[in-house]
Structures are given as C-alpha cells and as structure tokens.
Amino acid sequence: MRDIHEALKHGIDARRQELVELTCDLVRFPTVNPPGEAYTPCAEYIGRRLASRGFEIIYERGEGAPGDTDRYPRTNVIARREGRRPGPTVHFNSHIDVVVAGDGWTFDPFAATVHEGRIYGRGTCDMKGGLASSIIAAEAYIAANPDHDGAIEISGTVDEESGGFGGVAYLAHKGYFSKPRVDHVIIPEPLHKDRVCLGHRGVWWAEIETKGEIAHGSMPFLGDCAIRHMGAVLDVFERDLFPALAAKRTAMPVIPEGAKSSTLNLNAIHGGETDDFTGMPSPNVPDSCRLTIDRRFLIEESLEEVKSEVVGILEGLKRDRVKFDYAIRDIFEVLPIMSEPDAPVASTVAAAVEHVLGRPAEFVVSPGTYDQKHVTRIGHLHDCVAYGPGILDLAHRPDEYIVIEDMVESAKVMALSLHALLHPQG
Fold first, then answer.
1. Where do the H-state alpha helices sit in 74-224?
2. Domain termination site, one of 282, 310, 331
3. 47 and 101 share a domain?
4. 226-236 vs 303-320: helix crossing angle, rounded to 10
5. What is the domain-level CATH number for residue 230?
6. What is the pLDDT of residue 274?
7. Helix 16-27 × helix 2-14 angle, to 10°
8. 154: Cβ–Cβ under 8 A, 6 or more apart, which residues?
9. Span 237-270, pLDDT tens digits
10. How many domains does the chain have?
11. Same domain for 195 and 207?
12. What pLDDT, on the 0 to 100 scale, is given for residue 272?
C-alpha cells in the first residue's frame, strides 16, 4: 500500500507542469453561461485527451434543456476506462461552464495567466482547476496501476451555474449517475483542499407578484399602485422575516459561519415600465410588481415550513391591507442534503487528505447548491461528496485564481482516494 501511495504522489509531482498547462488550456475556452459558449470545443478537447489515455468517450447533448439550441448546444462529455477485473466505479464530475467575467479584472479573464504560483482567469477556481486535478490524478493512477480493478469515469458537464439541467440532471435521468454504472462520485468543487463537503443547504426560488390597477400618473388615487403593495411586503420581511431567519441555527457544518442561519436574498424586483424601455417613462400607475426571492434553508426545516412563512406574510397583508392581492410562483426547489462522514467516499477522501496534508480533514456543508443535488435526487446515488482545490470565496469574483500547489496536493488526494475506492479490500 505504501509503495502505491508513494508512486502516486511522485507521479503527480512529475506532472506538475502538465497540470498547469491543462488548467490553462481549459480556462482559455470561454465557456460562459449564459448563453453557453464554447461548450462543444471544450468538451471535445477533454474527450480527445482522455481518449488518448485509453478512455471510451461519449458526448451527450442535453437536448430540450433550458438554453439548448443549435447555436449553443448543451454538450457534455463522459469518459470511462474499464479495469482488468470487475469492481466499483469511481466518477469524477466537473462542470465546464463559468459565469460572465464582469468588470474589475487586472488580468485577462480568459488568458490563463500564471503569476507567482497562481493561475488567474475565469473558471480557474470554479472549477476548471478541479477538473484538471482530477484528470491528472486519474492519469497518474493509471500509469502506476494499469491493471486496476473496476472502472474510472471523468465527466465534463454543462450548466451547473444555471441549475445543471442540461448537464448532470440530464445525464442522471439517462442513468449515468446511478448504480450499477457508478458507485462513488467526487465533485471537485472549490471548497479548500483540506475540506470534504458532505452536501448543501436547501433552496427555494419563487416569484411574488403584487397586483394593482392602472391609472394616469397624475391621478394615482384612481388606480392602485402595485409597487406600494410590494413595499409593504418588503417592510414585513425586514421587520419580521429577516430577524426570524437569522435566529435559526443548524447543526450542519455549513461554511461560512453566516450560512449556519437561514437566509433570504431579494434577487430581483421589477415593476411599472418594462426593463427594455427607452426615453421618458409613461405616466402610469403600475398594476404589477414582481419580486424574485432566493431562500436558502437548513436540514432542520421542511420545505412546507419555508414556503408557509412567506405565504403567511402575504395572506396577512391580504387580510389587513386595502386592495392587497398577490400571486406566487415556484421557480426552483431543492431539499438540503448531507452525506454521512463515515460513508465510503467521504471517509476515504478524508483519510487521503490527512495522508497528504498531515492534518485531519474538515467536514463541511456548502451554503449553496451544486450538482450533488441531481446525483442524489435523480440518480439516487448517495455516496457523493465535493472535494477539490480552490478557495470558495474567490468563485465568480474579479481576478479569480487558483494556487498551483493546492491543485497538486488535491490531485494527490484524489489519486489516493481513487485507489482506495477501487480496491476496498486492499
């Protein structure tokens, strides 16, 4: 066992520059979502590389998924390498899409600049550095143990930043994340190299519409202002709901500390004129105002409870406020999930972290969702964790970067975990 561990660590050290170059190549594909640019060339790049290492390659387009068009096809790549003998399958899943670069950069966001031990660029941290680390880990493992048991899978999937419906959700519906095909899943999201992420909080997105009556702006008393009604909603949220959510605490090991409470984000608000109007606004009393809310909740809360808190406020206003009326529409909902720390993949990755870094791993839960939700909810595969290099706080920010040494060490953790999961009796 010690010999294979040393061989794996040495093999990854020898591939350090290759890991840097692979990460840079991946970042230079501007896979911005929305709209879903460069998905196909990025997926094909991954496929060509892994095919040359003995993997069988499948491309699956998420046809019919949100955003899928002939111009922006939702192209996923799945690579599989069968071992010499039957055994479990370990799957590394990474999303290839990135968010828009935005302003405030001092480095070109898609140049993949190597500077002082870091690689700068959009997607370095979230999560092309993790994808590259998993590829290098698998390649080093195969070189050290070409006659391994079981199978190794690596996927590059799309649309995680917009819900994952054209990526992992689509593939899960087709059986790619279910037994007997797959036994263990590691998602290299950026949650720090010494942390094993067991799951995430729940999420409920909804749109609240307050209704009014249109009238001339010079005679607002003849109409009913929907924006004022929304103001009343926000007032009760501030006075009652936000303090109540802040008082809730979870036993889940959520990071950062503020996410141990329930949270509500007011994501967008629209009322009156449409977003695309130009020139002078028309003198109308708005008859509709829409608010999008993003509610993150804890494993101790039920979805029914979460929704009833908001509906209760709206019903109270309908009862007490003159002419108040509303509609509410669900947009997206996912229950909180958390793997057990002693489950095979969680405990194995934690042991590998301690072996490589010389200190115990920290078990954490993510404040936001990621594609584990689809692996568990659709694929019914519960032996899944997130583990990868990168600092979570850098995701989606200007001058996003990943530390090269963190990728090297994470790749060692992944390689040792791969060996332990493929050879559980070893």
1. 129-144, 168-173
2. 331
3. yes
4. 130
5. 3.30.70.360
6. 74
7. 60
8. 46, 50, 55, 78, 79, 91, 92, 93, 94, 134, 135, 138
9. 999 999 999 999 999 999 999 999 999 999 999 9
10. 2
11. no
12. 87
